[in-house]
Amino acid sequence: MKIIVGIGNPGKKYARTRHNIGFMVVDRLAERHGLGPWRRRFHAMAIEGRLGGGKVLLMKPETYVNETGRALSEAVAWCRTAPEDIMVVCDDLNLPSGRLRVRGGGSSGGHNGLKSVLDSLGAEDVPRLRIGIGAERQSADKDFVLSSFTADERPAVADAIDRAAGALEEWLERGVESCQNIYNQTPKKDLEEDSA
Q1: Tens of pLDDT, residues 168-194
Q2: What count of Cα atoms within 13 Å lies in the side-chain half-sphere of residue 117?
Q3: What value, to the nearest 5°, has the Cα angle with vertex 102 and ends 196 and 161?
Q4: Cα separation of 126 and 103, whole Å?
């Protein structure tokens, strides 16, 4: 069984914040495929279903960002899932808003939720899908990642969430390399803006 885990914080207070874009993407994927309802399992809200020709577990941990690994490690032990069959979905402050970056492994890049996952699993070869939330900012802090997207940002964020759900579908069907080849490209509209 494959596992897709969105990183975020539980509760209405954090529901639409930048740090919760991982939850938003997992919600969107479930919505696109009519999966549900969400149930409490593994210290998370979870759905089990069939996508991309196999079984998949979607997770939104309720352990808060910094302890994402605690919930995921329980699910991994129960499902006997290998690190390469897990996809972590999280925000990335170092990417421009809406840009996607898929990797098959590596360090946490300073993201505490991803660090918790890698530490809990004792592995770095865990695929991850990062969604940019603001490399264009000169400085960012805790208040920024816990802030909501502005009205001006919401259309681009909705587009990024849709593309990220598509990236997850690609990963499930064809693997991380195909997903990277398609979704690590700079979106055409960004290229047009850069050349203007």
Answers
A1: 999 999 999 999 999 998 765 554 554
A2: 36
A3: 70
A4: 8
2-195 has which fold?
Rossmann fold (3.40.50)
State which H helix or E strand residue 131 sits in.
Answer: strand 128-132
Q: Please, are residues 108 and 97 in contact by the beta-carbon 8 Å criterion?
A: no
Domain ranges of the chain: 2-195
CA gap 129, 103 in Å, rounded? 7
Catalytic residue numbers? 19
pTM here is: 0.91
Contact by Cβ (8 Å): 65, 14: no
In angstroms, rounded to a whole number, what is the distance separating the alpha carbons of residues 49 and 33?
Answer: 9
DSSP for 38-83 reads: -EEETTEEEEEEEETTEEEEEEEESS-GGGHHHHHHHHHHHHT--G
